[in-house]
């Protein structure tokens, strides 16, 4: 039996998440969600599931959290952060996307109260109620003209059908 004191440490593994900046005129698609008993605001976002590409995760999370079907258009960048909620490292891949259609009857993910469209000023005014600083970072990247091609990311996974 090996000695736990001399066993190599497991490699650090951050939480990998995706998020979408979905723009309609001057408004951005946001979700109001309950986390640990408090209401917070975020873009449609969530964890990458095993076996799915980053783009598939972005489309799935947006649909599950808002009822909106989207088409990713650009890659906005990667943000690294240590969550104040759970203390773990997060690596977030942010995209911009175009809203295609909305299913108002679709049940939203557990904890999601509603989806809403807010201006950048309204979002900034939420202050501490934003789930993370990455919300404004990704909106500001989009407003600043960042539009990286989706081809900057590649996946060697087999394509899975969209939800």
UniProtKB/TrEMBL annotation:
One of its GO terms (molecular function) is hydrolase activity. Its EC number is 3.6.1.-. Its cofactor is Mg(2+). It holds the Pfam family NUDIX. The keyword Kinase does not apply. Keywords: Hydrolase, Magnesium. Residues 12-143 form the Nudix hydrolase domain. InterPro entries: NUDIX_hydrolase-like_dom_sf, NUDIX_hydrolase_CS, NUDIX_hydrolase_dom, NudJ. Belongs to the Nudix hydrolase family. NudJ subfamily. Monomer. This is Phosphatase NudJ. It comes from Fulvimonas yonginensis. The gene is nudJ.
